[in-house]
Amino acid sequence: MASAAQARTGGVAQAARELADGVLARDRRAIARAISQVEDATPIGRALLDGLFPHAGAAHRLGVTGPPGSGKSTLVNALAQLLRRRDARVAVLAVDPTSPFTGGAILGDRVRMPRAAGDEGFFVRSMASRGSVGGVSAATYEASEILAAAGFDWILIETVGVGQSELEIVELADSVLLVLVPESGDAVQVMKAGIMEIADLFVINKYDREGGDRLRRDISVAMELSDWRRPGGWLPPVHTTVARDDRGVDELLQAIDRHRDWLHQDPARWQEVRQTKLRRRMRVLLNRALLDRAWRAAQIEARLEADLPRIAARDVSPYAWIESVLEA
Amino acid sequence: MASAAQARTGGVAQAARELADGVLARDRRAIARAISQVEDATPIGRALLDGLFPHAGAAHRLGVTGPPGSGKSTLVNALAQLLRRRDARVAVLAVDPTSPFTGGAILGDRVRMPRAAGDEGFFVRSMASRGSVGGVSAATYEASEILAAAGFDWILIETVGVGQSELEIVELADSVLLVLVPESGDAVQVMKAGIMEIADLFVINKYDREGGDRLRRDISVAMELSDWRRPGGWLPPVHTTVARDDRGVDELLQAIDRHRDWLHQDPARWQEVRQTKLRRRMRVLLNRALLDRAWRAAQIEARLEADLPRIAARDVSPYAWIESVLEA
Fold it and tell me: Residues B31-87: pLDDT tens digits?
């Protein structure tokens, strides 16, 4: 006789199998529901990922990042349209920052890419970046796995901002495109943001505005001076676009193609690149799982609420409190 | 007879006590060494923080954040000079982004604030933001505790970027100043970055450049429309500066003073604000400790290296692997 727990597990496994079948059959509603499951970190989501894992190898993941106002969404849309004209199946994951107060995404699908509607080979999804540890990276990576299993050839992952979490795009994407604008300042300021090293390709968007040419020269010089070549010999090119008018986007896509080809040219290099990214990704996924388990096992939430007033009053040191939790 | 472990613990405790005495005596070299200990997360650092905790209550922590190139360093320097003229003791913590490849900070103390040299009431320190979980927040918070215990009246914490990690400034700082520039785009783009909600004060720096007035109006309108008032009734003001020429900085500092006064006006509100920030901070500190312990206990590093090739070859699912680690 099956126990209640076994029945529950069985139910989860079956629901996950059905959802996985839907994803593999490229059913849009199944894909959307599958992404919601991994976003909410449900047991069905976890089982689903296990089932889809062997099928998620083929897509090329392009990460697009840069400061707010640099026109990333417009550029991603323009690239997606070009890829669609080649008959490639394209998915867009747009990681929206989460409001630290409401917990919700600030932008939703509604304001994004109206052209996705009605096109079976084009899928768009906004994801909230959560405040949680590894939240951006884990859920976005998992969503990209689902999309890869659903047979999308290209997955464009757009993230807003230039902070620490944006470095996670390196783990998610095969190619990283850094979008700047003429007003992004000189190359030293770009380097200060810590984002120059993550780019496989640079693009200066809104290039019709003043200062673009200077920035382009600055970046090129900075790269040569600092020997900015990636392991294996890739030197990130600097492209220029006016995405709103589709100017320069074709050339940019050709450069992205070249980076993809370069990655696959040498099987040993490709394996090393993938393994390096996977190592970082595994850390993020594992850490999330470890914390999740620890918080539940030690009932940390309740403990913290009970002890917080004494820590706030500086009667108990945070470090002594942490030690007491670690012992428990 | 003391065991080797006890002797080691005794040595750590004594070293921490000596360093704590140096910090409380406001010895600059002791302060610098103490910050290095917490940056490196050493046992001495942890013991030190425990000892300094009761002494770290008084300082006002001002967080300064905003996109790269907005002139945060210049503004922070100008504010620090003004505070020094009041005879307030001022410390600056500049969180520099860490290179994801070399692991080092991209900028160092060298390029920052030459005026700190020779002034006993002015202390400047750059911190690398690490890639680790809660790295920015934990080490920077701990450094600010040391500086508060060392009797600094103001601690200015400058962080680069507008990504998720920058939201952590909310936990670190009593007042958060968001620095924008005329080119930051319209208010919708600023909101997209998810940073508008974290600001207690806005400043548009480089206000002599085109577009500043429009941005100022946009933000004011957006705040009124969305009822951007903080719990307790604080409505973030929008100031304008040209920090390079010291223009508007005095008025900005007066606004920061007003926010500080407002925080302390109502003891119940002050307690609630501090407790909310502390709750988030405790989560970060605890998570770091939990992960640190788990990785060491389960020898995860070695396990990951051994199994990575099979995961990369998609022979083993990442989720199955994580389950196997959690079991161990």
Answer: 999 999 998 889 999 899 989 988 988 899 999 988 777 888 899 999 999 999 999
Q: Rounded to whole angstroms, how far apart are CA atoms B199 and B176?
A: 5
What is the value of pTM for the model shown? 0.70
What residues form DSSP beta bridges with A154? A60, A90
- Amino acid, single-letter form, for residue B149: A
Window 127-146 of A, Cβ < 8 Å to B: 129, 131, 133-136
B111 touches chain A (CB under 8 A): no
Alpha-carbon dihedral angle through residues A191, A194, A198, A204, given to the nearest 10 degrees: -50
Contact B185 A69 (CB under 8 A): yes
ipTM associated with this complex: 0.73
Comparing CA positions, the residue from A43, A11, A13, A46 lying closest to residue A146 is A46
CATH topology of domain A57-285: Rossmann fold (3.40.50)
Distance CA B286, CA B290 (A): 6
CATH number of B56-285: 3.40.50.300
Q: What is the pLDDT of residue B8?
A: 66
pLDDT in tens, B113-141: 555 567 889 999 988 765 443 445 678 88
Tell me the one-letter amino acid at A282: M
Can you give the residue ranges of every domain in chain A? 8-55, 57-285, 298-327
CA distance A271 to A260: 13
Any B CB within 8 A of A279 CB? yes
pLDDT band at residue A108 using 50, 70 and 90 as cut-offs: very low
CB–CB of A69 and B291 under 8 A? Answer: no
Whether the Cβ atoms of residue A109 and residue A124 lie closer than 8 Å to each other: yes
Query: Do B287 and A282 lie within an 8 Å CB cutoff?
Result: no
Please give the full DSSP string across B161-202, using - where no structure is assigned: B-SGGGGGHHHH-SEEEEEE-GGG--HHHHHHTT-GGG-SEE
Residues from chain A that touch B167, judged by Cβ atoms under 8 A, are 100, 131
The partner residue sitting opposite B68, judged by closest CB among A57, A129, A190, is: A190
Amino acid at A326: L
Per-position DSSP letters for B10-22, written without gaps between them: HHHHHHHHHHHHH
Rg (CA), chain B: 22
